[in-house]
Write a structure and sequence with these properties.
Elements (H helix, E strand, L loop, with lengths): L1 H52 L10 H10 L3 H39 L1 H16 L2 H12 L3 H24 L4 H9 L4 H12 L1 H27 L2 H11 L3 H33 L7
């Protein structure tokens, strides 16, 4: 009987592996959703507490209740939601443009840095320069060069995304096992083959970390571009509402764009956990 059990055990192991990966994936999803819920509760409590502790004038400081009324229960709430969602749609479009531009540039430049030491000496100082100079100072030059349209959004938002994503991805690519690189090299693979077969898979956690960092960065870049260049979206809507003393609208816009950033960040985390649970180095571990 012990022999039969011993023979049966290896047969059950492959069946247990997919169940283990599925269990791990769902556990990670639950952890991400719980973190998002806790973050939302903490923000709401902190928001309400600070307004009370700082004794902010009700005319200036609006709490969750006032924002809820503005967007949901007021007689004009439907018009308010339509306006806010239209502005949010424009901002999400702008953020998507900046996110894609910055991440693609980061991936290409990171690959170039890993493949060539001389490329690192040329790329990193320029990337650091763009990161260190305030975007508000670069904005007039960018507008003069590319105009006030989609190109300016791509450049401004992409600059915010580029540097942290580039550094994170480069570190991930360089974290690949030297032994695995040597195996591919011995079998005749060149640096590009090593990059494709070894370094890119090893860098998956770093790439997703860069994505999580870049999501709020892209939103910030989009808001700055809208404020300084395009005159649309929530970035311009907040400035316009402040100028007209529409304080409840200002708070509603800030809340909506913050919630959108939290949702996008949570989606990025869920995608990361799903991919890493199946293809990452910890796949199959319960």
């Amino acid at each position: 009987m012990s022999t039969a059990l011993a023979l049966d055990s290896p047969g059950r192991a492959p069946d247990d592996a997919p169940r283990g990966r599925t269990h791990l994936a769902w556990r990670r999803v639950g952890r991400v959703l719980l973190d998002a819920l806790v973050t939302t509760v903490v923000v709401l409590v902190t928001w309400t507490t600070l307004l009370a502790l700082l004794d902010v004038s009700p005319y200036v400081g609006k709490g969750p209740g006032e924002v809820w009324e503005y967007l949901v229960t007021d007689a004009d709430a439907g018009e308010h939601r339509t306006e806010v969602l239209a502005l949010l749609g424009q901002t999400l479009t702008d953020a998507s443009i900046g996110f894609v531009t910055g991440m693609l540039a980061a991936l290409v430049l990171a690959a170039a840095i890993v493949l060539s030491r001389s490329a690192e000496g040329a790329i990193m100082p320029v990337a650091m320069l763009f990161r260190s100079v305030p975007l508000i100072a670069l904005a007039p030059v960018i507008v003069l060069l590319v105009g006030r349209g989609v190109a300016s959004v791509a450049v401004m938002s992409g600059i915010v995304v580029l540097f942290p994503a580039l550094v994170t991805i480069v570190l991930g690519l360089r974290s690949a096992s030297p032994q695995m690189r040597d195996v591919v090299t011995v079998l005749g693979g060149g640096p590009r083959t090593v990059l494709r077969l070894v370094q890119l898979p090893a860098a998956l956690p770093a790439v997703f970390a860069a994505v999580r960092i870049s999501v709020p960065g892209a939103m910030t870049g989009a808001l700055i571009a809208e404020w300084l260049a395009t005159g649309g979206g929530i970035g311009y809507g907040v400035v316009s509402a402040v100028g007209r003393a529409q304080n409840t609208k200002v708070w509603a816009l800030v809340v909506v764009v913050t919630l959108a950033s939290l949702v996008l960040y949570t989606i990025a985390q869920l995608l990361e956990q799903w991919v890493l649970a199946r293809f990452g180095p910890a796949a199959g571990r319960a």
